[in-house]
Design goal:
GO molecular function: magnesium ion binding; phosphatase activity
CATH architecture of the largest domain: 3-Layer(aba) Sandwich
Largest sheet: 8 strands, mixed
Protein name: Hydrolase, HAD superfamily
CATH topology of the largest domain: Rossmann fold
Keywords: Hydrolase
InterPro entries: Cof, HAD-like_sf, HAD-SF_hydro_IIB, HAD_sf
CATH superfamily of the largest domain: HAD superfamily/HAD-like
Number of helices: 10
Number of domains: 2
Radius of gyration: 18 Å
Strand order of the largest sheet: 5-4-3-2-1-12-13-14
Oligomer: single chain
Distance between the termini: 19 Å
Pfam families: Hydrolase_3
Length: 277
């Protein structure tokens, strides 16, 4: 019996209009009613998924959780209680910020604290992508984050739309800073940096341990490389049909459907309820 389902948001649970389909809502609500922990496991802040939690009926609900910032924080839905945090040091974040300014000055930079998102160089493309997903931010008026020196930072991400440039950014960062962080890629537009011991997989397993759930009793559903750690760590790792090639090659199961056609419902029906499509 699978007891926990960890689900990526963008391009997985959400369709291209940033909505959860009625079929996905229906199946997930049934699973929740039947005692399965439905856990949104996102690279974004837990604050950005509150409307999605309302849709699923677990908003402000005790003993229900969100894993956010690629595993950087685990938050109980009731009263937004932070139960676990693993962030980046300010020194590493500042170095990554400065590397972006030097090598990719046209890029938008996101710096996440537990309850705030600060962004530099916000362009219209970023606004169009983030606003439908419920993301709110404070726009920096100058390219400087020194005011965050004493504030815990959960992650930093850079919008670089070309994959070759994202890979080059990672090489530059590791050459200048060393292997002091974890790198992932998401949504075909971001390079993301987290604490070296943190990812969606460690976050999912940490929460499962807290809840007394075994790793083999978990399901993880995703589409992009930042979902790989949870897909590989779960009892069953599921790729939606629109997942990238790396995820498709590692998943235990590939959905027949994509994020626009109820892929999450397909996976939950198959593995939680043993329904054959």
């Amino acid at each position: 019996m699978y007891k926990l389902v960890a689900i990526d948001m963008d391009e997985t649970l959400l369709n291209d209009d940033a909505e959860i389909s009625p079929k996905n809502v229906s199946v997930l609500k049934k699973a929740i009613k039947d005692g399965v922990k439905v856990v949104l496991n996102t690279g974004r802040s837990y604050l950005s998924v509150q409307e999605n939690l309302k849709t699923l009926g677990i908003y402000q609900t005790k003993d229900q959780y969100v894993v956010s910032f690629n595993g950087g924080a685990i938050v109980e839905n009731k009263d937004l209680k932070v139960v676990h945090v693993e962030g980046l040091t300010f020194d590493i974040v500042k170095q990554l910020f400065d590397i972006s300014l030097r090598y990719y000055p046209e890029s938008c930079i996101h710096v996440y604290t537990l309850d705030e998102l600060y962004m530099w160089n916000v362009n219209q493309d970023e606004k169009d992508y983030l606003q439908p997903r419920g993301v709110e931010w404070t726009e920096l008026q100058e390219p400087n984050i020194d005011f965050l020196e004493d504030t815990p930072i959960t992650k930093i991400i850079i919008n670089v739309n070309d994959m070759d440039k994202r890979l080059a950014f990672n090489e530059i960062a590791r050459k200048e800073i060393g292997d002091k962080f974890k790198t992932t890629y998401s949504s075909g537009r971001y390079i993301e940096f987290n604490n070296i011991s943190t990812d969606k997989g460690t976050g999912m397993l940490k929460l499962a341990e807290m809840l007394g759930i075994k790793p083999e009793e978990t399901i993880a559903i995703g589409d992009n490389s930042n979902d790989l750690p949870m897909i590989e760590a779960a009892g069953v790792g599921v790729a939606v049909r629109n997942a990238n090639e790396q995820v498709l090659s590692k998943a235990d199961y590939i959905c027949k459907r994509d994020n626009n056609h109820d892929a999450v419902a397909e996976a939950v029906d198959k593995f939680v309820y043993n329904k054959i499509d």
